[in-house]
Design a protein that fits this description.
Blueprint (H helix, E strand, L loop, with lengths): L12 E6 L3 H6 L1 H8 L2 E5 L2 H9 L5 H9 L4 H26 L6 E5 L8 H15 L4 E6 L2 H12 L4 E6 L2 H20 L9 E6 L1 H16 L4 H8 L5 H16 L3 H8 L6 E5 L12 H5 L5 E5 L1 H10 L10 H13 L4 H33 L4
Parallel strand pairs: 1-2, 1-8, 2-3, 3-4, 4-5, 5-6, 6-7, 7-8
Helix pairs in contact: 3-16, 5-16, 6-7, 7-8, 8-11, 9-10, 11-15
């Protein structure tokens, strides 16, 4: 296997593609990613859809039809998005069947504007689940306290959930607990748990972006060269350390005797999904995060650019559990230099929700702009 992407699967990592774009579906590019690069799942978020709908003319034909039916911009966006999701779900269904429901999923996000509203998040999750009506759909729900309550209820209703925008260890632990509790509830009711699936999307590179900027501030604020060197040595380290400790927590949660009883009844692990694995800092290796987080029972959802870089020069080895003591020491050292892990991860979750909510609004605005361009508004 000369393609490094194809070497991930034998090591237990599933490659998912972080984008949905109708132009890529029509051109056959998505099909090639499935066939040639070993992609076994697809994730979407408001930002990728907003860009896709604004760009080019791939959606024009359906938009003309929906406009002629008198649909609002919001309804048009809903129908454009769910059409793509359903198409991709059908493309991935053979993977879903051949992997016994382990992979072959496509994810669709409820509006992040509802991230702090449990009832409305649940309402949207149910609406999308019933509208798309595919067993290999996952509904993306943010890992806020309100979102965790919603995702636990959605799982008990047999709705597959991709829990998104997780940044901290504590947040991850609460998400994993909610998933296990949902399995328990269904089993106690005598309901099937074999076909229920969930992943916990842990965001990676954004942590380094924020922490590195804070470290730069710390370096500028001192003239002590020893202290400057100590602080600089932490740059580019936080994100990988954080994810490795999450994987350690994952191993602990899903290796207990308690979970083993759920597994015997058909319950699947809630795998960690590494999101935001593109490298934001050009000073770092362009496949840094993808290379350093490879391990069994994980998913990496990569954007196209990262897939292309990894295909070209990715180095594949079991890396996820490398030097866990050092990973813990890095987070401790960050606290020692005055960077609060709790504050940073909370800020990132809040900013992530704000950015995705803004993309939802931009997507609706994009639909309105196209309506105007078509002379119908």
């Amino acid at each position: 296997m000369s393609n490094p992407l194809l070497q991930l699967r034998p090591l237990g990592q599933s490659l998912w593609y972080d984008n949905i774009d109708r132009a890529q579906i029509k051109s056959g590019q998505l099909h090639r990613l499935l066939e040639e690069d070993g992609v076994v799942g697809v994730t979407a978020n408001p930002t990728t859809f907003e860009k896709a709908i604004r760009a080019g003319h791939a959606y024009d034909e359906q938009m003309h039809q929906l406009i002629s039916e008198g649909k609002s911009a919001k309804d048009i966006c809903d129908l454009l998005v769910t059409t793509d999701i359903r198409t991709v779900a059908e493309m991935l269904y053979p993977v879903y069947e051949s992997t016994g429901g382990q992979d072959g999923f496509v994810s669709l996000e409820v509006s992040p504007e509802l991230a702090y509203d449990t009832p409305r998040t649940l309402e949207e999750a149910r609406r999308y689940w019933n509208m798309i009506a595919r067993p290999n759909l996952m509904i993306k729900i943010p890992g806020t306290p309100q979102g965790i309550a919603a995702l636990q209820q959605a799982l008990t209703e047999s709705i597959n959930v991709n829990v998104t925008l997780i940044f901290s260890l504590e947040n991850y632990h609460r998400v994993a607990e909610a998933y296990v509790s949902a399995l328990e509830v269904r089993l106690q009711r005598g309901q099937d748990i074999k076909h229920l699936a969930s992943v916990a999307s842990f965001f990676v590179s954004r942590l380094d972006v924020l922490v590195d900027s804070l470290l730069e501030d710390k370096i500028r604020s001192t003239r002590d060269s020893v202290e400057q060197h100590k602080i600089a040595s932490l740059q580019g380290k936080a994100a990988i350390a954080n994810a490795r400790l999450v994987y350690k927590e994952f191993r602990e949660v899903f290796s207990t005797a308690h979970f083993a009883s759920l597994a015997r009844a058909g319950g699947k692990m809630q795998r960690p999904l590494w999101a935001s694995t593109s490298t934001k800092n050009p000073a770092y290796r362009d496949v840094l995060y993808a290379e350093e987080l490879i391990g069994p029972n994980t998913v990496d959802t990569m954007p196209l650019e990262t897939i292309e870089h990894f295909r070209d020069h990715g180095q594949v080895h079991l890396s996820i559990e490398h030097d866990l003591v050092e990973a813990s020491n890095i987070l401790t050292s960050l606290e020692q230099v005055g960077i609060s892990y709790e504050k940073v991860t909370q800020q990132l979750q809040e900013e992530g929700i704000q950015k995705f909510a803004a993309s939802f609004s931009a997507m609706y605005q994009g639909a309105q702009d196209k309506q105007r361009a078509m002379g119908t508004v």
